[in-house]
Amino acid sequence: MKLLxxxxxxxxxxxxxxxxxxxxMKVHALLRNPDxxxxxxxxxxxxxxxxxxxxEQIEEAISGSDMVVSALSTDGGxxxxxxxxxxxKAMKKEGISRIISVGTAGILQSRTEPDLLRYQSSESKRxxxxxxxxxxxxxxxxxxxxxxxxxxxxxxLPDGEITGTYRVEKELLPVDGSKISTGDTAHFTFSLxxxxxxxxxxxxxxx
Length: 207
Known about the structure:
Structural class: alpha/beta
CATH superfamily: NAD(P)-binding Rossmann-like Domain
Number of helices: 6
Radius of gyration: 16 Å
Order of helices and strands: EHEHEHEHEHEEHE
Largest sheet: 8 strands, mixed
Helix content: 25-40%
CATH topology: Rossmann fold
Strand content: 15-25%
CATH class: Alpha Beta
Distance between the termini: 30 Å
């Protein structure tokens, strides 16, 4: 199994990299700043030095991979949705069908207003919706892609270790879920690599 990991230097991405390395998987990353990745990880993976908004660099990074895992953040702009379009095209060109992306609970369905996503509804405590809107665009692109996708949707995401004890729910945030650690978000995401589930679905995760 060769994994292309995007967002490997982020808080969740690093945890996913560690789990994949421990499992003996081959991990390839597309890194804009390799120095942001601890040497304990960098020494055990291969990487392409580049940017997710560069079509050629994405195609180079994805070559020979079996699946894609994205832990990319929005960077306060449209990086997530703009890069997702390029990722989808590169996956189809390479003949890769499976992608797991780490999103946000804001793009899950609202329980109180089922026709809306959480960030659009009264459930959301967000004052700014720009990041959620970018996640929404990326979700729409995946939904229309024809690929085998899953979006892991954590709520409030403090740094924390793996406990392995958490709740997940298809399309919705578990009732009264208020937080989930970076470690457990990575743990669940990695479990989907090992045992594919929730195809073409969003999955809420919380304690």
